Fold this protein.
Amino acid sequence: MDQEANNQLLKVSWYPITINNSTNNHHENNCIYYVKYLMGETDYRLLITDLRNVWYNAANAQDLYEQASHHRLIIENNQQLRQLLRQVEAFLQDLENNCEIIKEEQSLKIKCSLQQKIGTLSWTFLCELLPSSTGVSSMDAPTVLYNHFILPMFMLIQNQPG
């Protein structure tokens, strides 16, 4: 995650999702993730955490064209690209019902599908695990958790009338 993406995502609120982990290698039945994303005209940025790890995924227009072709979708113009982004956003808005989260060693795979009139639309978000230390403070997981989660919560608590 670069500094620009970090700064843009700082302005976005988290929302919680609860995922049944029956397919994952976890001891708990459910796992709570916190998600934030930002959609652009021809791109998106996605940040997800379980408060232990942080994963990031982003796609620009070229990435979206390539991934669409992997899913056998033909995107020929910007209007179709925006339509695809609207559907990608719909997946992000309803991760609990339309998606499966698969936690791997260095990534988090979010596989989404939705039955539509003419077939099933599928999309996969391949989120990379942010490292625990990089030397570039805006890109490591502890700094992202601190700046995006802990510091805003601390500011809310500190500003409560007491």
Notes: Strands lie at 15-20, 30-39, 44-49, 54-59, 99-103, 107-116, 119-129. The CA atoms of residues 1 and 139 lie 6 Å apart.
